[in-house]
Amino acid sequence: MHVLYQDEFLLFVHKPAGLLVHRSPIDKHETEFALQYARALNGGEHVYPVHRLDRPTSGVLVFAKDPETARALGLAMMAGEVNKTYQAVVRGWPAESGFIDHPLREEPEDRRQKGTEQPVRDARSRYRTLATTEIPVAIERYSSSRYALVELYPETGRKHQLRRHMKHINHPIIGDANHGRGRHNRYFAERFGQGRLMLAATAIEFAHPVTGETLVIEAAPEPSFQQVLSIFP
């Protein structure tokens, strides 16, 4: 994990795939977290996570250096004043661009609550297709297989929103064990020697909660993600 940008109030880091942001009741055996690494990068001083990335998702992650900044940025996120950009590799060829307005039932943090009635929340995402490819490999019923590189822009912040929304439009993200297609996931895992989720947070933009200046922090996907992009011409 490394620093992308920091000032007196904020710390932006690049979280690698496979690292939890903080301790979770469903991963009690884990001993390494982005939170502790961020604290070390902040000279051992405490930091406050203001949002989260799923464990298998890599990319831009923001921490505040004091409770007041964390609270202000959290309110800005709730108000839709923080713009996030992701990249993903998906099965099939989506439209050139699209808007997904599909409510999602909340997923409980604790797996022991799975199956219990949870509220349904509104959820909205936009996307645009950056590149497409067709490889001469029969994975399902066709003699070749199509994939696309897309950019995703969540307008709300529901758990697994982008993964569930791409499944909803029949273009699941490669490497998604819960919402993807097993045959395609296995093909990529075997071809590239690793089965990571092909979802990366590549940029975040918002007004600095203290200075008011517009911050745009970007990060290229990590090497394990870029390796898979070799399928695109």
Question: Which key terms come to mind for this protein?
Answer:
single chain, 233 residues, alpha+beta, Pseudouridine synthase, 2 domains, two-stranded antiparallel ribbon, 5 helices, 19% helix, 32% strand, globular
Query: Which spans have pLDDT < 50 for at least 5 consecutive residues?
Result: none
Quaternary state of this entry equals single chain
Task: State the shape.
Answer: globular
CATH class of the largest domain: Alpha Beta
* Structure classification: alpha+beta
* Share of residues in strands: 25-35%
The third-level CATH topology of the largest domain is: Pseudouridine synthase
Number of beta-strand segments: 12
User: What count of domains describes the coordinates?
Assistant: 2
Distance between the termini: 30 Å
Overall average pLDDT: 91
Protein name: tRNA pseudouridine synthase C
Biased composition (Basic and acidic residues): 102-125
Catalytic activity: uridine(65) in tRNA = pseudouridine(65) in tRNA
Function: Responsible for synthesis of pseudouridine from uracil-65 in transfer RNAs.
